[in-house]
Amino acid sequence: MFKSQFFRLYKNKLSRIIFFIILLIPCIEIVQLLLMKFTQGTEFNPAFAFYLAGSSRGHVAQILLLWFLPLFLLLLCSDDAIQDYKTGYKNILISKTGRKKYYLTKLLSSFLVSFFTMLITLSINFILVNLLFWNGTYTKGLTEIVLANNLLFNLSIEHPYLTDLFFTLLVCTLAGFAGVVGSSFSQFFNDKKYTYTATFFVWFLLVLKEKSLMFLFQPFAEYGFEVLMPILFLTLSVFIIIPLGVYIYEVKYNVD
């Protein structure tokens, strides 16, 4: 069933378009930094030119992709359960594989596609900034700062490339869970209007709160472990509880 799931996404024109849009949005950041390089002579250190570091003015590229990430992922892969429901293909798959396997396959495939899409996107961005900003030294003055009692910040400045790697894996994991949440709502509502609204509502509640989910997407920020760990715990709790609740309801009780 996994093979057929990925083949469907590969053949879906909209999924391919969304995949390339996700790949291209971080390039906006690169263009902005190149303009700063050629007009102001600002030679960024590649680690600080990385997309997640958000070194451009206005952070347009970060807002476009990261604030609306669950919607991109729904369009990419997570709302295909709605199409299954509308065409009746869902009943055929359930009769062949069983209800549990159907839902678990949908959730796992959404996680994997979302995770690896972000991993490919961020990896390409990392390669490009290292090629375009090779030997750059500008770090926005952050290397001159030492924050007492902030182990994460100090380690980040000492090991900037490992920091980029760490935050890349963290962001990819959160993207994977965002895909799972979208897939869960798709299977619960079987309607795009309610699915997209619910998914975006949950994501934006986490983004707009005082200790925002976006703190987890920002390397070289002033937030220490004491700030980030509660945010991560809350986010993972929400991202696990929603799919688990939908899974229990759909498998145990929704047997129509």
Brief rundown of the structure:
The protein has 256 residues and is an all-alpha fold. It has twelve helices and no strands. α2 packs antiparallel against α5 (69-78), α7 (89-97) packs across α8 (99-132) and α8 runs antiparallel to α12.
Structural description of this entry:
With 256 residues, this protein is mainly α. Helix content is 76%, strand content 0%. It is built from twelve helices and no strands. Helix 2 runs antiparallel to helix 5, helix 2 (13-40) runs parallel beside helix 8 (99-132) and helix 8 (99-132) runs antiparallel to helix 12. The radius of gyration is 20 Å and the shape is elongated. It starts with a helix and ends with a helix. The model has no long low-confidence stretch (mean pLDDT 91).
The helix content, as a percent range, equals over 70%
Separation of the first and last Cα atoms? 22 Å
How many runs of DSSP E, i.e. beta strands? Answer: 0
- Structural class, judged by helices and strands? mainly alpha
Q: Could you say which overall geometry the principal axes of the C-alpha atoms support?
A: elongated
The biggest sheet, with number of strands, parallel, antiparallel or mixed sense and barrel status, is: none
How many helices? The count is 12
The succession of helices and strands, N to C, reads HHHHHHHHHHHH
